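Hi C.,

You asked whether I'd gotten around to modeling the 141-residue construct. I have! Everything is below, sequence then structure, no commentary in between.
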Amino acid sequence: MSAAKRNIQPKELKPAPRPAGLVLDAQLHLLDRQMLDVDGVPVTTVDDVELSGPPLGEPIPEGTPPPHITAFLTGPVLGTRIFGGRPPSSRLIRVSWDAVAGVGTVVQLGVRSDSLDASWVERWLQTHVIGRIPGGRHDPD
């Protein structure tokens, strides 16, 4: 009897268990979101997400827990988005998931921006660009 005529049943698959905690679609809920510090000051945007788990290309043993977010990555990614590729990991700045207070239309951080390496671009722009515009050194009323 050929395999086409035999009624071969696949192993019965159990549904995947529902992970504990918040489930996020990285592309929809995280990438390109503005990060604000605890005072609402812009820090940077989310360019990539770092996940826990086995290294890329390694087999995943059965029973391995699902990956979780360990950090957000930010840095010079515009060129790689246009031309392809990936920036070297040494050029990316990590914002630990432990610093995240909430995820909504923005990623709210629970720390001040001056404690993060990722806010240097915002600080530099404020000092060297915005601060040179008349009225750029004070909050609007």
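If it helps when you're writing up: Residues 135 and 141 are 11 Å apart (CA to CA).

Thanks,
B.
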